[in-house]
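User: Just a sanity check before I run the rest of the batch. Below are the structure tokens for the first item. I only need the designed sequence back.
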């Protein structure tokens, strides 16, 4: 079943197994996304609040893309919490462990060949950390696309931006990583 069908089955037929399948499918990706954007002690609360709001919304709205909507809710919760603490942006974890996640998708496979086919994971980890610290809006797009598997259209929905803006930010993030990687 598609995500849309799972949610429809849950809402119309009270099919708890359909929601459980949806939850199981996205819980790890959502939690990882939240952990990469906020402090660890806040992640559990944001995760729970995201699903709680998602459940209340699915009975009121017909969602075309439930996965994107769930991630958009989480992003908005993080932004609201950030605003409430008088910060300009979502806080990032100091010690994100990218090394365990580094598998480059095919659309940037040439990234590896440009560096003599031997990626120095520590250098790349530093480059990702620098991107996270200095250009977090580009880091968000990169993280959502590579690690969470979202399309640029889905990211545009989550980030409330135009698809072309998201694509540009993704390409800028790749260029930024390459430049920073070369400098270190």
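Assistant: Here's the designed sequence for the first item:
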């Amino acid at each position: 079943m598609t995500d849309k069908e799972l949610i429809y089955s849950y809402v119309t037929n009270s099919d708890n197994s359909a929601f459980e399948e949806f939850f199981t499918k996205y819980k790890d990706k959502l939690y990882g996304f939240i952990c990469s954007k906020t402090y660890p002690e806040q992640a559990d609360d944001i995760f729970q609040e995201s699903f709680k709001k998602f459940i209340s919304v699915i009975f009121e709205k017909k969602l075309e893309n439930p996965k994107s909507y769930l991630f958009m809710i989480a992003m908005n919760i993080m932004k609201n919490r950030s605003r409430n603490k008088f910060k300009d942006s979502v806080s990032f974890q100091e010690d994100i462990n990218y090394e365990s996640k580094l598998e480059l998708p095919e659309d940037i496979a040439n990234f590896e060949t440009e560096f003599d086919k031997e990626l120095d994971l520590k250098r790349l980890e530093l480059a990702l950390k620098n991107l996270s610290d200095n250009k977090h809006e580009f880091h968000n797009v990169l993280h959502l696309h590579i690690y969470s598997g979202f399309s640029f259209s889905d990211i545009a929905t989550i980030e409330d931006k135009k698809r072309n803006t998201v694509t540009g930010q993704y390409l800028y993030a790749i260029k930024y990583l390459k430049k920073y990687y070369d400098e270190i």
